[in-house]
Amino acid sequence: MGDGATAARRSPGRPRKADAERRILDAAIDEYLERGATGFTIDAVARRAGVGKSTVYLRWPDRDTLLVDSVLARSRAIEDVDTGSLRDDLIALSTNMLRFLLDPVGFATLRLAVEAVASRAAPQVTIDVAERHRRAAGVVLTRAAERGEPINPITRARVIECLYGAITLKALAHGLETDTTSDAETVAACTELVDLLLPLLLEHGRPPPDSVR
Amino acid sequence: MGDGATAARRSPGRPRKADAERRILDAAIDEYLERGATGFTIDAVARRAGVGKSTVYLRWPDRDTLLVDSVLARSRAIEDVDTGSLRDDLIALSTNMLRFLLDPVGFATLRLAVEAVASRAAPQVTIDVAERHRRAAGVVLTRAAERGEPINPITRARVIECLYGAITLKALAHGLETDTTSDAETVAACTELVDLLLPLLLEHGRPPPDSVR
């Protein structure tokens, strides 16, 4: 801890700026998990974080922006997958996604999406997180194609939809059951899905580019 | 209880029994769609249906049972698929499911599932509807196997999970966008998914390596 004795001993009521941000983001997630989107207010977040409302408003103009930032702050693991193999990349991606959805914060983004559809008002967080998952898959597939793997441009979007869809249902089914899932089981389930779908992603026996058309 | 001659010209406040049930079920769905699971009370349903609370309790002991019945009453189309062909059965099944999820009542079952996971209290409706979808797929696959189609027993559950998962994501994506989906687009999207996944369901279904499809 390089911030010295005073930082370690400061009173909880007077956090420094970075601490306050961290506490506001944590409080926002906790509020959302407890009360859902309808009960989520900046007032309650400020109270829970032990800061003034104006401190929250200094950084976040409205509750949706705050919710987006707090969820994204806890979902770092979605991207940055690069194992050198398409199969391993896809396993890593889908394992990240299933772990994310099995965590209450990650699951909250699914809940936000569903509530947004029901109330016909999509909060930005939903669109942002979905877009990050889609983009992460796109990066992995494009890199594989650049390595010379025969990625089928016609099927790729639908195969990813099947993969992510199956993972979403797994997270739902898990949540509806009472038993817990070990991380080894999470990895195994994702590996099975990737091995099932991988052949659909590759163009076996595709004629070389110059003989097409 | 004045049934008899006055029944034909009864006031809206005094429906006959079958009418009252229908109105209670409709009111329950409308209440759920408007207020979500947390705001759903038998009190409000009775008021909306124009019946006494005791009339609701005569038939439904608690709010979860009422919610299950009202959702199931509007989701008849899930089962009873039998076209004679596995591909067409799967297209019919998945089209039924996507139509169901694109309808506010069907979508409400997904919302219930997600809220149930978040609140760690799964209502029966969620489990019942998921089970009906799973069973409908099981019936279709078993019938195909009986006709002699080489259904792969190892992949079948996972392929259905991919199919239903992709459909769930489609319903979500649709709900988050502003444009509407025509029924022809719904059928086309489901047909594409089934044609993508069908080879994984058959034991020797994959095209030979040199064929280009």
UniProtKB/TrEMBL annotation, chains A, B:
Endpoints of the signal sequence: none
DNA bind region: 41-60
Domain called HTH tetR-type: residue spans: 18-78
Keywords: DNA-binding, Transcription, Transcription regulation
Record keyword Protein biosynthesis present: no
GO MF annotations, alphabetized: DNA-binding transcription factor activity; transcription cis-regulatory region binding
Annotated transmembrane regions: none
PANTHER family reported for this sequence: HTH-TYPE TRANSCRIPTIONAL REGULATOR RUTR, TETR-FAMILY TRANSCRIPTIONAL REGULATOR
Protein name: Transcriptional regulator, TetR family
